[in-house]
Amino acid sequence: MPEDARVTDVQVAVDQIKNLLDGRSSLRSQALTSILTALLATLKAGIRWERDRAEQAEAAVAQAREELRTEALVQARLRRSWDDAEAEKRKARAITEKAIRLAKAYGEALGDKATRRVCEQFEQDEA
Length: 127
Hints:
Blueprint: H1 3-21, H2 26-110, H3 113-126
């Protein structure tokens, strides 16, 4: 129920009670009017408080959504960075393997045992 409708309902109740009290003791009527006015003020304050709480909750939800969006972006960037790093590692390994093959081929062509040993040792270290 909207705030205005609740306030209107309470105001109608206050007016009805005032109408019932017409013709009775004015002191009693004033006391009841004061009580009902205080009740109305309390209800209005409660409605304002509830509205403020709802706005705070909405703000917290909006902030949480923004944090989730930011976290998702960070994770996507990290995944992309890791994928790029893996691609660079694969490229570097391919270049290294090609260099080893070439060095072995030159070593065998020239009969250089030292070159072959260095290449074999490098392959063992890489594995």
